[in-house]
Each structure stands twice: as structure tokens, then as C-alpha cells.
Design brief:
The complex is a heterotrimer. Helix content of chain A is 27%, strand content 16%. By secondary structure, chain A is an alpha/beta fold. In chain A, α7 packs across α15 and α10 runs antiparallel to α13. By secondary structure, chain B is an alpha+beta fold. The two termini of chain B are 28 Å apart. Chain B has a single domain, classed as Alpha-Beta Plaits, CATH 3.30.70. Chain C has a single domain, classed as Formate dehydrogenase/DMSO reductase domain (Formate dehydrogenase/DMSO reductase fold), CATH 1.20.1630. Chain C is 76% helix and 0% strand. Chain C has eleven helices and no strands. The longest helix of chain C has 30 residues. Chain C starts with a helix and ends in a 7-residue tail after the last helix. The model of chain C has no long low-confidence stretch (mean pLDDT 93). The chains are: A alpha/beta, B alpha+beta, C mainly alpha. Chains A and B meet through α1, β4, α3, α9 and α13 of A and α1, β2, β3, β4 and β5 of B.
């Protein structure tokens, strides 16, 4: 077998046109032409076909459309997005020649159609990407992690390296030294099997939280007692006023049956006004400039505080609701432990407690950028709107003040009692009505210790120094050992999606700290460069696969395999089975089942709980199964609103906590840094690096946002998508002008952590004083040279200091300077 | 003249470009070619005063545009070889690749940027309305790709019932070529005007349209 | 100027073809002064030097072929007579080329009679004017406001007459017949020809610029083209001066040759400006 040296792609890999092998250049008709009798015949045909008010182009059944040599195979997208949209693969000669999607032309915006987004339609460019990993790799002799130089090895050697190192680490350091890095590149019922293997082998150091939701998910149980889901977006159609914070529903989930569609449909139907609070006029507002309320990033809680001040001052708060359903709004509902100390929310807002500053609109104006009079107007609109639907995305919480900010946003519906009723939400991210399929059981993890999802590199660098009191270690006072073995399956979160890439690089490159990294991916992304062994994975759409999901409506996709094995790529399940075998636990891992058996059994288990689901055979034939929400909308906290005593929440108070006694106890029992300024009520805390803490050296706030050209970093190397979705830094003319920057110029953004270069987009669609870049761009820097990230990934400039409570990623909390370079 | 036209709902479009990529995938288009383009038209300003208060009259809206299969198609008029013609069955405007010399006149003359010369192929290429699909009672690929259902396609009378003939900026006024594109404009949409730019607005995404 | 760089072959074609064609106008002006009554040796020289305009136009056509993506299908370009401005230009250009080639080849054989010569050159002079005009009219496309004006054919006519006069002068001087034909009326007519050409060229180019300047969205394009415009007009004026000097005072081959070089460059730059200011009514 030939040994190939496989290098990670150089900067700006050669642009090869995305042509499917075996297909000619010109568009070829896929069926014989129907003869109509000349022009008149065509007209007659047309008239006969479209006799109705709207044309009916009925999607024909696959057999009628496809060539005899071409087959249709249904499958699903599986990347980090709850869309998981349908993919109608046209397969010919074992190659995918076109990717369509489930669609019906019926002029009914409510019909459930999980249409794939632009990335789904560009799968061929990714599946056939020249940088796909085709065989197992090992880090080349004499090279360091991060250099990206690899040698091809056999599967036997790869399995041997992985299993022997895993065995060694476990015996030398214990199972706590083994870690599965956070990764979200793959979703399906059998897609994530590493936890199962490691649990059989004695367990591994776990993590809590996600890079998407660390802060909001940490604080939610303190507010609502559980990890609360919000109402469906559809519920807002009945609202008199819709408020959206830190969310771009049309950019974060772009499929035809998730929030891109759901939000557009809701906006069309709702009679109420919609306000979107954002530092940027996102694509969710295209054509709807009347919905934009520009606000400085990281200051949502300041706005809420001022709105609360106004609502209280003008007697628009629903005191009845607050006293019945909530703890801590004012002294009347404080718990015994906190009574008589001016610790209520009202004390904070009115200035009779805490910092003793009244949170007036005048106070909020210079912080938020929203004029005081506008705040007063908004307060009046909010106070008199019934129903009021308040929703936040995950942008507001992904900051250094994220936990308290997420909580603060929930205050808006609480202050006016707009919870649990038709047309309302609980202030959290919208919920969904979904079909939930069982996933491969991971089993029990004997290792109970957990760290925050954001702390892997810390745990590698100084594991035993990390404590429960200060560093977010859970279920143990401290870590016993640092992380020595990392599994990085289907994720780019070692470097690319991780903060402070330069710092991460230095620690990961040192193989005396973390001793072994096994990675598995479909393409050589930046994080793969830090692996010692790489196993080539395959896309879910190249396998049998099943997934259930939903937005306002639910759907499920049963995917079939389009072709057999190509090169030496194997599915993750097969690869892990081989490792299990090498470690003598194959039977425990597989239970004698193939992945197909698992898919079948898991599906039958789901079906036994939900008898409206079709049989597996039927599911595979139809490919896509859709189901509307029988209730129409799902309303958060509906049951609690109807019966606050009988359906009491699992907070200690049994109510919604505006003052949380549990949190106060937590604060007392843990260590925090002074500028974290933690409180047991939702206060506004300035970000460590934000609009209130810019410096002369770094005068601009820097945020990120989700981008249509990628899902995080997935698809990030696909030239076809990069061509029409450039990596641009959004900058207001007020900041660009003095810097001599025009759209299309190359600019460098830099701060104490690093520097990146990308194109400038000078636009009024961003507030002055803040710049923003789409997240997920592929890191591209000479790590032995100037380390300037020419891929434009702002994680090179992001701090790795964790948020105070969740110890999560505050990735939008940054300041920088920007200058023109070319 | 034409039998069919496109419909575009500017109140639903979120500029995601799924339509662009669905078409690229179907037609095997590599770098440098896209038969559909999504323009972002932006104007106004967002300012901050000395006290930090932000004010804005910023607006931005998108227009998804392929070929409008115009009644007075200027590309057909100027084509020296008659390669640019109407498909006899559907009346959709198409290129006869065997006849075309790739002179680029269609590309120069079209005010919607529809045709483009592919030097590798040796001829002009553009949206052909997926006429092979339309002949078989199926919609063009872009239409059924749109996640927010912002595109439509059908007979002219049916499309006229849904929207107004393309007359919003940054498109030209409809008199030039009588485009068969019917638009439901968003609230932000400005009327078409020559010359573009008199609205204090501009095409803000030149790098994203081919 | 990106649009200009994309159309270099067309810029070359329109420069070379119009100037080359225009030579025959200059030659026709010399007929009354006895151009074709020269000695056989001088006639031979004139015929050999007539290679210059023939080559200019020929190379121009070859350059145009480089513009096509499929030059082998080039004859298909005749399909759009009447309808397509490009077809019309090709028809007129082909007609000119055929007559010019026929004339030149026949002349080289030495058996072309005086009367036929005069007739053919006169016909070519008229065809040249039409050809140049049609090159300009090829761009009369209703959706391109900067090109769809009388300024386009005007500037092409101007280039044809001014450039043609300079290269015509070159032939006359190189064949040593200039002093023979340069009677008073010839000088007047010739200067008038040059002046008319220069005026049409300058007005045509300035007019194009004014139209473009009135289009707000074209601000960047116009600003980028301005220095090139200035250079072109300056060059046109200079070449006119050189032409006039060479006719009115003692002609020197070097001066005329310089004038030819300057007019070639100035016209080429002027054409670059034309293509650079491509603006449609839409996107």
C-alpha cells in the first residue's frame, strides 16, 4: 500500500471548479423532451395545465422523474443545526449528481417543507471537496501538532495507536484523564458513539454546557427550575407585540421548516409590531427596517433595567402576577434569608439597594445607545401590549455578563405578567415541536467529575489546580489529574471555534501536556492539525441514518445509503467498533449489532412511545415524514400559569425566581473575580471587554454573528460558498471614515490576544463603535511566524477567560482596533 | 409574448441565497457563474451623537433575480447570431450553444445581468427558466428551493395577480425590456429609477453577485 | 477601469480598424492633386505602403476574433442583419475589407487602371466613413445610456478621420508624393479633415464623459477614467498639431511617424475610456 504524505491545505487552496466526476459541463436534460405541437400546442398545453388561480407544479414521484440509470436516495443534513433538512440525492453511477430537497409547490406557507438551505444545496461541493480525508493519518515524524503534516497509515496501525494510547493513559492516569472534546458537527440517532465506548472502558471526564448555550442554560434552572424550553415561534402570530433580543432567526436556522421559515411566516401573520434589538441590522430584517432597534452589544440588561424602571414608575407592572407567580420582585416576596436588606429586584431598579443608582432611561441611554425618550416610549408599548411575546436567541448570553443578561431579558414578560398565556413566551429561546428519536445509549459514566465545556485547554494546562470553588469543577473539589487523552470527533473546537486560538495552539502543540489526541472528521479543518491520529469519517448522508427534529412543526427523515465505501473511509460506528475490538470490549459496545441494527432498534423504541410514527420501511420509502403540532402552538409555562400551586416549579421557592436564594447561596460558596460583579438578581454588569470598557488602544467593541456561508466552521473550506459569501468585517462609516477604510479594503483587527485580516464592509447596518465579523471562518495563520489570522477568524482575538457562573465561552465580549492594510 | 414569469416576494426574502446555490447545483456551475443573483440594496445611515444616543434611518432589502425572460428581450434583439432565442414550447429565453459565438452582446445589453459568456464553454450562459422541467409541469429548481417560499413561477396572468411588474430599485424601470418578473415589494422597497444611486442607496454586496 | 481591461481586444479592434479605414479618406483627398498620376515607381511605393491600412484593419479584425469565445462560429454573426447592431457593423466592415483587399491586391499586380483606382479609393473612402460610424453604432443599445448616444459614432468618425489623415500622411510622405499633391486646396482640405476628425473625436469623448458623469452610481468609474480621458484628449490635440505642421510646413517623416504613434495611443486610450464607462440602466 502506498504511503502518501498528506498536508493540510495551504492558505487559499487552489480553486478547483466543483464538477462532479463523470458529468459533462453543460446542463443535460434528465428526461426526453415532451413534444408539443408547436407554439399553439404549447399554449394549449399551458392553458390546460394551469387552469387554476395559481399554477400547480406537482412534484412528481421519484420514479417518474429520474432517468433509468439515476436513482433518488433520501437522506438528511446532519450538521450543527436543528434543521437537519431533507436531502433528495440524485445518484448515478455511485456518485451524487444533484441535491434537491423535499418541496411541494402549494402556495401554503404553513405546509411543512423541510427545504434544505444553501449549504444543503452545496453538499456536492463539500462531499467532493479535494481536502476530504480518505484514509487514516498519523502526525508526521518530527513535526509538531498544529503544523498539519500527516502520513498515511493503515487502519490496523491507526486502531493500534489509538487503543494502545487509550489503554496506557487510563492505566497511568485514570479515566479522569480522558476527555471527549465538545463537537457538534454530526447529529443523528447513532452519530455519537464515543461516550458509549469510553463508558464501557471506565468512563471519562465529562463536561456540562455547550458553546451555544453555556450561560443561558446555566442560569435557566435558577429562574424556572428546569432547562425551560420556550414557546414555538408560531405562538407569536397571536401577539400584540413581539420583542426579539440577540437573535437572527433567519440566519441561525435557515431551513424551510425551522426558524428561517417560521419567523417569516409569523411576521407575515402577526398583527402586532415586531422589534428586533440588535447591534446589527441582520438579514432577519431584510425589507423590514421598521423592526430594527439598534442597541450596543452586551447592554440588553441595561435596557431591560431602564424599561423596568419606567414600567414600575408608570404603574404598568402586573403586581398581582409578580406576587403570585414570582419570588423577589419586591420586598413582599423576598425569602426569609434575604428580607429587610433591600435586596429585591425593585430595590436594584429604583436605586434603593445594590449600587443605589436609579436605572432611569437617562442612565441607560449612554450605555445602550437608545435615546431615553425612545426607552420611555418602548416601555409604554411593552406595558400596554397584551399578549406580549419576548424571545431571545443565544447571542445575548454568549458574553461575559451572559448569565445575568439572559435572566434580565426574561424580566420583560414577567414584569407585565405575559407568561403562559396565548401569544406569549418565557423570554428564553423559542421552543419547537419536534419528533424526538432515541439515540444510541451511552450508558452510565462512572466518572462523575465534570468541567465546563469551555475548560478543556485549561484542564490540559493546569488540571490539578482547577477547583470547584473557583474553576467550575463539578462533583469533585478539584481535578485529580490533567487531561491526557482527547477524542475530537466531528468538531472544530480545539482551535477554530475555541477562544484565544494563539493560546490554545501553544498548549495543544505541546504533546507532553496532553499526550494523545485522536480526531475524526471528513475534511482537514484547523482542529484536525492538532491530532496525532486521524480517522476518516463519512457524512451522515453517505450512510443509513435517521433523525427527528422540528420547528413550529415536526419532521423525521429516514436516510438511506447512496453508495458503498469510497477510499478507506469508515463510519464512526465502525471505527469505534474496531477500537472496541482492539480493547477487548467489542461485544459490550456493539451488543452484536451493526449500526443498521441499532438504527432499527432505536427507531422501534421511539415508535413504541409514539404510534403515529410510520414503520421503518414506510419511513425509508417516503424519506420525509412531517407532522403538524396538534395544539397549533406550544406555550411555555402554560401549565404553571393555570395552576401555580399544583404545578409548582422546581425552584426552592416553587415559583419563578427573580431573586434566587439558591443562587445567593451559590455565590456565597464560590470564588469570583471582582469585575464579575455577580448578583442573585438579574442586574446589568458591563462586559470585561465591551462598549463600556474600550480603551484608547482598543476603541471598538468586536462581536460575531452566524453566517449563511457556513454553519459555524462547517462548509468553511468550500470555495463555491466562499465565493459568494466573503469573510467581511462590518464597520459603520463613522468608524471607517477616519481610518480611511472603504468597502472591499483589507483590514486588520487586533487586540492583546491576536490579530486577524479580512475584507471590510462599510455599512449603516451596524452601530458606530462596534465592528463584527461572521464566526466560523477557517483560521489561517503562520503559527511560527506573525500568527496573523488571514482567514479572518475573530476567535484569534477572543479571550479565554470563562464567564462567572457557567464558566462558559463569552465569545462576543471583545474589544479591538481596526486599521486598513491594503 | 412570453408565457411564463417569475414571482418574487420581497417581504419574505431573507437574502439566504439558497435559490442561487440550488441553481448552481442543478446546472453544475463552478466558480464564476451563477444564473441567479441576490442583490442587497441598502441606504440611510446609523449615527451616534455626542451623548452616545444612536439614531438610524437605515434600510436594506434584497432582490433575488435570475432571468426575466422579458417580452422585449434586449439580448435577443442585439444578438448577432440569433443564438439567443425563445424556446418554442415554453417561450423562455435560451441560448443555442451550437450557434453562439460568445461575443458578449447579450451580457453587455442585459440590465439584469442575466447572461454571461463562459469562455471555457465558448458561449453565453444564463438562466433558461429550467424549461426542460417547465415542459413537464415542474417548477424551476430555484422556486422550490426557497426556505421562506419567496419565489414563484407560472403563467403571466397568474404572476400578475400576485405582484407588480419589476419596478423597484436597483432594477431598471420596466419600460426597457418589459421583464416578466412580478414582485411583492417589501415596505423598504424604493421605486426603480435611472440612474441608480439617486435614492441615496447602493448595492451593498457587490462581492456576492456574479 | 476594470470594464476596459476586460475589453482589450475590442479596444484594439476599434482603434486599428477605424484608423486603418480612415487612411483611404486621406488618400482620396490626394486624388485631385494627382496622387495616381505619379510616376510608376512612386505608384508602386504607394501600393506597397497601402499594406499599412490593410494590415491595420486586418489586425484589427483578428483582435476582434480574440474577443469571441468561439471564433470558429464567427460567420454566424451575419444572422442578425437589420436587427442586431453588431451584425450590421460586421456586414459593413466585411464589405469594406473585401473592397480594400480587392483594391490592394489588384493594385499590386500593377494592372489597375487610373479610372478604376480613383473610383475604388473614393468608394473605400465612403465605406470607411460608414464603417467607422457603424463601429460606433454597434453600441447603440437602449439599455446602455453611456453608449447609446450620438457621441459613440461621432468619436469613431473622429478617430477614423484624424487617425486616417496621419497614417495617410505617412504613406504620402514615405512614397515621396506629398510634395507633389500638396497644393493649396489639398492643404486646406487636409487640415479641415484633421480638424473635423479631432473635433468629432474630442466632442465624442467628452460627450461620453458628461453622460457618465450624470449617473450618480457611476461616480467611482468616472473618477477612475478621468486621467485617462485627459491623456487621450491631450494626445488627440497633439497628433492634430503634428498633422497640421506636417502639411502646412515642411513635412518630415519622423514627425509624421510620431504623429501616427501618438494618435494610435490616444485613440486606444480613448477606446479604453469608452469601455470603462460601460453602465447599464439596471444592475
Amino acid at each position: 500500500m502506498e504511503k502518501h504524505t498528506h498536508e493540510a491545505p495551504p492558505s487559499n487552496p487552489a480553486t478547483a471548479p466543483a464538477r462532479t466526476p463523470g458529468l459533462g459541463g453543460a446542463a443535460v436534460s434528465r428526461r426526453s423532451l415532451v413534444k408539443a405541437g408547436g407554439a399553439l400546442g404549447a399554449l394549449a398545453l399551458a392553458g390546460g395545465m394551469f387552469g387554476k388561480v395559481v399554477p400547480r407544479f406537482v412534484a412528481k414521484t421519484p420514479e417518474a422523474v429520474a432517468d433509468s440509470k439515476e436513482r433518488i436516495v433520501w437522506n438528511h443534513c446532519a450538521i450543527n443545526c436543528p434543521g437537519r433538512c431533507s436531502l433528495k440525492l440524485h445518484v448515478k453511477d455511485d456518485e451524487i449528481v444533484q441535491v434537491e430537497t423535499y418541496a411541494v409547490d402549494d402556495d401554503d406557507i404553513d405546509s411543512v417543507q423541510p427545504r434544505a438551505c444553501l449549504r444543503g444545496r452545496s453538499y456536492r461541493a463539500w462531499v467532493y471537496d479535494p481536502n476530504r480525508i480518505n484514509y487514516p493519518l498519523k502526525r508526521a515524524e518530527g513535526t509538531k501538532r498544529g503544523e498539519g503534516k500527516f502520513t498515511q497509515i493503515s487502519w490496523d496501525e491507526a486502531i493500534e495507536l489509538v487503543s494502545s494510547n487509550l489503554k496506557r493513559v487510563i492505566s497511568q492516569y485514570g479515566n479522569e484523564a480522558v476527555y471527549i472534546n465538545y463537537a457538534t458537527g454530526v447529529s443523528s440517532s447513532t452519530g455519537r458513539s464515543w461516550p458509549r465506548l469510553l463508558n464501557i472502558l471506565g468512563g471519562y471526564l465529562g463536561y456540562y454546557g455547550t458553546y451555544s448555550t453555556a450561560e443561558i442554560n446555566w442560569i435557566t434552572p435558577y429562574i424556572y427550575g428546569s432547562s425551560g424550553a420556550g414557546s414555538t415561534i408560531s405562538a407569536a402570530a397571536e401577539a400584540a407585540l413581539v420583542l426579539v433580543f440577540g437573535s437572527s432567526p433567519c440566519e441561525t436556522r435557515q431551513g424551510g421548516a425551522v426558524s428561517n421559515h417560521d419567523y417569516v411566516a409569523m411576521r407575515e401573520k402577526t398583527k402586532g409590531k415586531v422589534y428586533v434589538f440588535d447591534y446589527r441590522y441582520s438579514d432577519s430584517m431584510m425589507g423590514h427596517s421598521d423592526t430594527w432597534v439598534p442597541i450596543n452589544p452586551g447592554t440588553d440588561a441595561a435596557l431591560v433595567s431602564a424599561l423596568a424602571y419606567e414600567l414600575i414608575s408608570t404603574n404598568l407592572v402586573d403586581l398581582d402576577f409578580l406576587h403570585t407567580y414570582c419570588q423577589g420582585f419586591d420586598e413582599e416576596t423576598m425569602p426569609e434569608s434575604a428580607q429587610g436588606k433591600n435586596l429585591s429586584y425593585k430595590d436594584y431598579i429604583m436605586g434603593t439597594g445594590y449600587d443605589r443608582i436609579a436605572k432611569t432611561p437617562e442612565w441607560a441611554e449612554p450605555i445602550t445607545g437608545i435615546p431615553a425618550n425612545r426607552i420611555r416610549e418602548l416601555a409604554h408599548e411593552i406595558g400596554t401590549a397584551k399578549p406580549l411575546y419576548v424571545v431571545q436567541g443565544w447571542g445575548s448570553q454568549r458574553r461575559s455578563n451572559g448569565e445575568l443578561t439572559a435572566w434580565a431579558i426574561c424580566m420583560l414578560p414577567l414584569l407585565t405578567g405575559q407568561i403562559g398565556l396565548p401569544g406569549t413566551n418565557n423570554g428564553l429561546r423559542e421552543g419547537s415541536y419536534a419528533i424526538n428519536l432515541d439515540t444510541i445509549p451511552a450508558g452510565n459514566n462512572p466518572v462523575k467529575t465534570q468541567i465546563s465545556v469551555f475548560s478543556m485547554v485549561d484542564a490540559i494546562e493546569r488540571g490539578p489546580e482547577m477547583t470547584e470553588m473557583r474553576d467550575g469543577v463539578k462533583n469533585a473539589e478539584k481535578l485529580e489529574v490533567g487531561i491526557k487523552f482527547v477524542v475530537n470527533y466531528a468538531g472544530n473546537c480545539i482551535t477554530n471555534q475555541n477562544s484565544d486560538i494563539n493560546w490554545v495552539h501553544d498548549i495543544m502543540a505541546d504533546d507532553t501536556k496532553c499526550e494523545f489526541v485522536v480526531g475524526s472528521d471528513i475534511v482537514m479543518c484547523d482542529s484536525m492539525k492538532y491530532c496525532d491520529v486521524i480517522l476518516p469519517d463519512i457524512f451522515r448522508l453517505e450512510q443509513e441514518s435517521m433523525i427527528g427534529t422540528g420547528g413550529d412543526s415536526a419532521y423525521m427523515i429516514a436516510g438511506s445509503r447512496p453508495y458503498g465505501q469510497k477510499h478507506e473511509r469508515k463510519s464512526a460506528y465502525e471505527a469505534i467498533s474496531l477500537i472496541a475490538k482492539a480493547l477487548g470490549v467489542e461485544r459490550d459496545f456493539t451488543e452484536g449489532k451493526t449500526e443498521g441494527d441499532w438504527i432499527k432498534d432505536l427507531y422501534e423504541a421511539a415508535r413504541s412511545k409514539d404510534d403515529t410514527l410510520p414503520t421503518l420501511t414506510a419511513a425509508r420509502e417516503m424519506g420525509v415524514f412531517c407532522r403538524k403540532n396538534p395544539k397549533g402552538h406550544t406555550i411555555a409555562l402554560e401549565a404553571y400559569r393555570k395552576d401555580p400551586v399544583g404545578k409548582a416549579l422546581s425552584t426552592m421557592s416553587g415559583k419563578i425566581d427573580i431573586y434566587s436564594e439558591e443562587l445567593a447561596d451559590y455565590i456565597a460558596a464560590h470564588e469570583f473575580l471582582p469585575d464579575d460583579r455577580v448578583t442573585a438578581i438579574p442586574t446589568y454588569v458591563p462586559e470585561w471587554y465591551g462598549v463600556e470598557t474600550t480603551t484608547d488602544q482598543y476603541p471598538l467593541a468586536l462581536s460575531g454573528f452566524h453566517y449563511r456561508g457556513r454553519i459555524h466552521s462547517s462548509w468553511g473550506g468550500v470555495e463555491l460558498l466562499k465565493e459568494l459569501n466573503p469573510q467581511e468585517l462590518w464597520i459603520n462609516p463613522a468608524d471607517a471614515g477616519p481610518r480611511g477604510i472603504e468597502s472591499g479594503d483589507t483590514v486588520r483587527a487586533s487586540n492583546e490576544f491576536g490579530a486577524m485580516e479580512l475584507l471590510a464592509r462599510v455599512t449603516p447596518r451596524i452601530v458606530p463603535g462596534t465592528v463584527a465579523a461572521p464566526q466560523g471562518a477557517w483560521h489561517d495563520a503562520d503559527m511560527n511566524g506573525d500568527r496573523i489570522d488571514r482567514g479572518g477568524n475573530y476567535n484569534t482575538l477572543a479571550t479565554h477567560r470563562p464567564s462567572p457562573f457557567a464558566k462558559g465561552n463569552p465569545q462576543h465580549t471583545n474589544i479591538c482596533q481596526v486599521e486598513k492594510t491594503g | 409574448m412570453s408565457t411564463y414569469g417569475f414571482y418574487f416576494d420581497g417581504t419574505r426574502c431573507t437574502a439566504c441565497k439558497t435559490c442561487v446555490y440550488a441553481c448552481k447545483d442543478k446546472n453544475d456551475l463552478g466558480l464564476g457563474f451563477a444564473y441567479r443573483k441576490v442583490f442587497e440594496y441598502t441606504g440611510g445611515s446609523t449615527n451616534r451623537d455626542g451623548g452616545g444616543a444612536i439614531s438610524t434611518d437605515c434600510f436594506a432589502y434584497s432582490v433575488s433575480l435570475s432571468c426575466n425572460h422579458c417580452d422585449d428581450a434586449v439580448c435577443i434583439e442585439v444578438c448577432p447570431t440569433a443564438a439567443m432565442h425563445r424556446d418554442p414550447e415554453t417561450e423562455l429565453v435560451c441560448v443555442d450553444a451550437k450557434v453562439c459565438i460568445g461575443c458578449g452582446y447579450c451580457a453587455l445589453s442585459c440590465p439584469y445581468r442575466a447572461p454571461k459568456v463562459d469562455r471555457e464553454k465558448g458561449h453565453s450562459v444564463k438562466c433558461d427558466g429550467c424549461h426542460h422541467l417547465v415542459k413537464n409541469d415542474e417548477a424551476p429548481v430555484c422556486v422550490l428551493a426557497c426556505p421562506t417560499r419567496a419565489l414563484g413561477f407560472g403563467t403571466i396572468p397568474d404572476m400578475q395577480a400576485k405582484g407588480e411588474q419589476a419596478n423597484i430599485a436597483p432594477l431598471p424601470t420596466k419600460e426597457y425590456t418589459k421583464p416578466n418578473m412580478f414582485i411583492k415589494p417589501s415596505k423598504d422597497a424604493l421605486p426603480a429609477a435611472l440612474p441608480a444611486g439617486t435614492n441615496n442607496a447602493f448595492i451593498a454586496n457587490p462581492l456576492e453577485v456574479l | 477601469m476594470e470594464h476596459a481591461y476586460a475589453e482589450l481586444p475590442l479596444a484594439a479592434f476599434s482603434t486599428l480598424a477605424s484608423i486603418g479605414a480612415g487612411v483611404f479618406v486621406a488618400l482620396a483627398l490626394a486624388i485631385p492633386g494627382g496622387l495616381f498620376s505619379s510616376s510608376p515607381e512612386k505608384l508602386k511605393k504607394i501600393d506597397r505602403l497601402t499594406a499599412i491600412p490593410v494590415l491595420l484593419v486586418g489586425v484589427g479584425f483578428i483582435a476582434a476574433m480574440f474577443h469571441l469565445a468561439t471564433p470558429l462560429n464567427a460567420l454566424n454573426a451575419l444572422n442578425g442583419v437589420g436587427r442586431s447592431p453588431l451584425t450590421n457593423e460586421v456586414v459593413v466592415g466585411l464589405a469594406f475589407m473585401v473592397v480594400a483587399l480587392a483594391y490592394w491586391v489588384a493594385a499590386l499586380t500593377g494592372r489597375l487602371g487610373l479610372g478604376v483606382r480613383k473610383a475604388l479609393v473614393s468608394v473605400l473612402a465612403v465605406l470607411a466613413v460608414f464603417f467607422a460610424g457603424f463601429i460606433g453604432l454597434a453600441y447603440a443599445i437602449p439599455t446602455i445610456p453611456t453608449w447609446n448616444t450620438p457621441f459613440a459614432p461621432a468619436s469613431m468618425l473622429g478617430y477614423c478621420l484624424l487617425g486616417g489623415s496621419l497614417f495617410g500622411l505617412l504613406i504620402l510622405q514615405a512614397a515621396d508624393v506629398l510634395k507633389d499633391v500638396a497644393s493649396g486646396s489639398f492643404k486646406v482640405l487636409f487640415v479641415a479633415l484633421g480638424l473635423l476628425g479631432a473635433a468629432a473625436a474630442v466632442i465624442g469623448t467628452l460627450g461620453l464623459f458628461m453622460v457618465a458623469g450624470g449617473i450618480e452610481a457611476a461616480g467611482h468609474q468616472v473618477a477612475a477614467a478621468l486621467p485617462w480621458l485627459v491623456g487621450s484628449i491631450a494626445g488627440l490635440v497633439l497628433s492634430l498639431a503634428l498633422a497640421v505642421i506636417s502639411v502646412v510646413r515642411v513635412p518630415r517623416l519622423g514627425v509624421v511617424a510620431l504623429g501616427c504613434l501618438v494618435v494610435l495611443c490616444s485613440v486606444f486610450v480613448g477606446r479604453l475610456v469608452f469601455y470603462a464607462l460601460y453602465i447599464t440602466v439596471g444592475v
